[in-house]
Amino acid sequence: MTQEHPPLTEGVYYILLALFDARHGYGIMQLVEEMSNGRVRLGAGTIYGAIKTLLERGWIEALDGDGRKKEYIITENGKKVIKYEIMRLRELFDNGIRITKEDGTNG
């Protein structure tokens, strides 16, 4: 595995996942909270700061719309970043299981 991409923060990881379907900022906040069972709650400042950065990196793009709520969607480059991060997380998980001799289940 190369250092092609730095590790993603949990918030950025969830934002990118949320944008596999077009969503506006509030929709992202709701889905992230739902996906994480309420554990991850992103405020508006966090969301819009991250969106700005993700747009600059070319990982997401804004969709043309006539509504007042701007929607965003992940780009092909963003999908590559997510795939890389999933591989990285899988490696972390697999090594943790191997070393601790746990089976990866709760209990």
Automatic annotation (TrEMBL):
<dbReference type="InterPro" id="IPR052509">
    <property type="entry name" value="Metal_resp_DNA-bind_regulator"/>
</dbReference>
<dbReference type="InterPro" id="IPR005149">
    <property type="entry name" value="Tscrpt_reg_PadR_N"/>
</dbReference>
<protein>
    <submittedName>
        <fullName>PadR family transcriptional regulator</fullName>
    </submittedName>
</protein>
<dbReference type="Pfam" id="PF03551">
    <property type="entry name" value="PadR"/>
</dbReference>
<dbReference type="InterPro" id="IPR036390">
    <property type="entry name" value="WH_DNA-bd_sf"/>
</dbReference>
<dbReference type="InterPro" id="IPR036388">
    <property type="entry name" value="WH-like_DNA-bd_sf"/>
</dbReference>
<feature type="domain" description="Transcription regulator PadR N-terminal">
    <location>
        <begin position="21"/>
        <end position="82"/>
    </location>
</feature>
